[in-house]
Specification:
α6 packs across α8, α6 packs across α13 and α9 crosses α14. By secondary structure, the chain is α/β, with parallel strands linked by helices. A hairpin with an 8-residue loop joins β3 and β4. The chain contains 14 helices and 12 strands. The radius of gyration is 25 Å and the shape is globular. InterPro entries: 6PGD_dom2 (IPR013328). This is Ketopantoate reductase C-terminal domain-containing protein. It comes from Rhizochromulina marina.
């Protein structure tokens, strides 16, 4: 970038750490750090506080903090400087061209109203909602309707965690960020905004229906809640079949509930932003015995950091309620609304919603025996996996037979004659 050209101002609005969850907070600082490392913007980290929230006292110092960029193995340091302001005031929003809203889901409405008062009308600013969970973007859209500023629905297909040393922020595993497909009226300015976001180095997907990917990412991330309910790290969750079954049962219940909710809406939950393997195949692969499951694990779970913890369990150990209230609870409410039974998800939600002391968080855990009807559900999942494998084998066999049949057909040799090309008069 030319040294004489002023960099655009980008604000990342995040929630205070206390008393809920650090998931949205860490996501905001990770995105802000990547924008700073991209070198094309001046980044302002703006803390949003509700009127009832106390000033956060447990935010980590940014001195010496590192960020692990996507698809890289070497972390890079983030330091306070002229292009990175970790403690910016809300008033800076009036001069920012792009604003990323990464607050806790339940705080979106209050945050949108506060932003509406600070951001001038007809400024042509772009506001992107990158949050954990779903059903919160509408508050931002309604607040800025006919304001002359543009709002964009977004989704994040990965979670951000700290490494074991507590000095490096990185993705739990690689994924994508999703932005709504730009309509004709948003195309001109939206392209400039998204070009700036691409400097983060994170793959971007443009989708007409972001909701389907938001719900699909929530279902895919159920392993974080299963690991927290079992009191283990994410790697340990996948190590034993009995532990994986909790994750598989939760996925199956949520997929059934969301399929019922979608009805004839023309969409279905998709984890395209999180993984290349579909949710249905993941649920079935989890049912494999340990020896057979291990080769498939890296297809849908390849951590970017060594031995990453579940951010839900980290919140629980810190005495925070976590994002259970606006992710897992939303999924359970969908099942209850449409009459889809969700015994395992309900059991996990009840367990993780308990207010327990941090030292008792791991002791208060779940086992497969605690889930009623688990055996019959697992047997059905195993049967569906067998049928899926048999269908795949049948398709492969049919293709091989077709190829062999075509190979036996006589070939017609085509030879070039000695005739001259047609003249102009002949044409």
């Amino acid at each position: 970038m030319a040294s004489g050209r002023r960099k655009p101002d980008v604000a990342v609005v995040y929630s205070s750490l206390a008393p809920k969850s650090r998931g949205s907070h860490d996501l905001a600082f990770y995105l802000g750090g990547l924008l700073f490392l991209g070198g094309y913007s001046t980044v302002h980290m703006v803390e949003f506080q509700t009127s009832s929230a106390a000033k956060s006292q447990d935010e980590p110092s940014l001195v010496g903090v590192k960020v692990l960029p996507f698809f890289e193995s070497t972390p890079q340091s983030i330091q306070e400087c002229g292009d990175f302001h970790p403690r910016a005031k809300m008033e800076v929003l009036s001069r920012c061209q792009v604003i990323l809203v990464c607050v806790h889901g339940p705080e979106t409405k209050d945050c949108a109203q506060a932003l509406r008062k600070l951001i001038p009308d007809h400024g042509g600013r772009g506001l992107f909602a990158f949050q954990i969970g779903c059903r919160h973007y509408s508050h931002l859209r309604d607040a800025f309707n006919e304001s002359g500023n543009w709002t964009f629905e977004g989704a994040v297909g990965f979670r951000v965690v700290w490494d074991e040393s507590g000095t490096c922020l990185g993705p739990l595993k690689h994924g994508s960020i999703v932005v709504e497909r730009l309509s004709r009226d948003k195309a001109d300015m939206g392209t400039k905004y998204t070009n700036l976001l691409e400097t983060m180095g994170i793959p971007m997907l443009f989708q007409k229906t972001v909701t389907a990917l938001s719900w699909g990412t929530m279902v895919h991330d159920l392993h974080l809640y299963a690991a927290a309910a079992l009191g283990v790290k994410v790697d340990a969750l996948f190590a034993l079949r009995d532990r994986r079954m909790i994750y598989a049962l939760m996925m199956r219940e949520c997929l059934s509930a969301l399929s019922t909710a979608a009805g004839q809406g023309g969409w279905s939950p998709s984890n395209q932003a999180s993984c290349a393997v579909s949710l249905e195949w993941i649920e079935q692969l989890l049912c494999l015995p340990d020896a057979l499951f291990w080769p498939f694990k890296r297809l849908f779970y390849r951590p970017a950091l060594p031995k990453p913890p579940s951010p839900v369990l980290v919140d629980r150990l810190d005495g925070k309620c976590g994002d259970v209230a606006w992710v897992l609870k939303d999924l359970v409410e969908v099942g209850n609304k449409y009459g889809a039974p969700m015994p395992v998800c309900t059991r996990v939600l009840h367990l993780l919603s308990k207010n327990v002391a941090p030292e008792d968080a791991v002791a208060t855990t779940l086992s497969l025996k605690d889930v009623r009807g688990a055996n019959s559900s697992l047997s059905d999942s195993t049967r569906r996996l067998i049928w899926s494998i048999l269908r795949l084998c049948a398709v492969v066999s049919a293709l091989i037979c077709l190829w062999m049949l075509l190979d036996t057909l006589p070939r017609r040799e085509i030879t070039l004659g000695d005739s001259e090309p047609p003249t102009h008069e002949e044409l």
